[in-house]
Amino acid sequence: MESMALWFEPLSERLQDPQMVQLGFAALLGLAIFALMVALMLLVMGTSDPLRRRLRRLEAGGETATAGASGLGQWLGPMGERLVPSEEEAKSRIAREMRRAGKRSPGAVNVFYGVRLLLTVVPALTLALLVIPFVRIDPAVSVIIVIAVAIAGYLLPRFWLERAIKRRTLQLRRGLPDALDLLVVCSEAGLGLGAAIQRVARDLEVSHPELADELHLFGLQTRAGMDNKAALRDLEERTGVEDIRGLVTTLLQSMRFGTSIAMTLRIYAAELRDKRTQEAEEQAAKVSTKMLFPLIFCVFPSFLLVAMGPPLLGAAAALAGR
Question: Which superkingdom is the protein from (predicted)?
Fold first, then answer.
């Protein structure tokens, strides 16, 4: 009994300290929230069909670069699958946007909605349970902060998707002139369209990997038995680049009317080069207008101070002496 009293005496002294009690309560609350999140994750993974989950793993096994191949995507996919819109139009739109961002995994849409759910719930719940109770903030302000964090977490995946599409579109547009020049050379050397595109895809793997990936996928589709026209249409659909859309339209018209593909590619390359030159001239013409505001608000006040400061000080001293 005396030994037990010796053990409990330091504990009772620590329990009398308010800071230690508050710290212990925060630690227990954090462990409880962590256990709750783990339980919810296991519940979601358990309610999903094991056969479908194994099929997702097999599908993602061949695409290590996609979001579904990671361990995080294996449990975010079932969470987001319940949030995917049931309308076919909305589902096809988000799937098309994911493809244009470079995410072609079958479970990319489910992972996207799973990440959206995670970023919406977890930061807001953490803020509401671990931060706000220990900070002196008005309840109305705390509710507004939690709602703002939840809205930001909901909109963040959409913002990332739009940025990824713009970045990939820019990279594809930058690599298209080099690809056209190589296609012209390969076509004039006697290669067919499919063989020329495969050769260009191999040559652009280092300098323009995004465009090389799209062209390589075109080669895989044609070797699998897809028609060149259907493969070109799919290339136009999954990239969404205006220049590639014009190239596909030009090639389809050349196939339809039986004209020379090499001559068609040479003419389109010249038109694209003229278009890039006009865009560069347009950007250069806007420079003078864009520089007007920094000159007025940054450079001109400093120049005015240096040029007019000494005369104004001299005039002020002369008036003060008079």
Answer: Bacteria
Nearest CA-CA partner of 266 in 168, 196, 171? 196
The C-alpha atoms of residue 112 and residue 98 are separated, in whole angstroms, by 9
φ/ψ (deg, to 5) at 64: -70, -20
Instruction: Say how far apart CA 220 and CA 97 lie, in whole Å.
Output: 22
Calpha distance 205→220 (Å, rounded): 15
Question: How many percent of the chain have pLDDT more than 90?
Answer: 5
**C-alpha span between 118 and 123 (Å, rounded):** 8
User: Using an 8 Å Cβ cutoff, are 188 and 262 in contact?
Assistant: yes
The alpha carbon dihedral of 141, 146, 149, 155 has a sign of: negative
Contact call for residues 171 and 208 (beta carbons, < 8 A):
yes
Mean pLDDT for each 10-residue chunk of the chain (322 residues)? 51 60 67 72 57 54 43 64 79 87 83 86 82 77 86 91 92 88 88 87 88 89 86 88 88 85 87 85 87 84 84 84 67
Helices 88-100 + 108-126 axis angle, to 10: 90
H or E segment to which residue 168 belongs: helix 139-188
Q: Roughly how many angstroms between the first and final C-alpha of the chain, as a whole number?
A: 98
| DSSP state at residue 64 | T
Contact 200, 296 (CB under 8 A): no
d(CA 149, CA 209) in angstroms, rounded, equals: 36
Question: What is each CA distance from 28 to 34, 41, 92, 125, in whole angstroms?
Answer: 10, 20, 45, 16
Ramachandran bin of 301, using left for φ above 0, alpha for ψ from -120 to 50, beta for the remaining angles: alpha
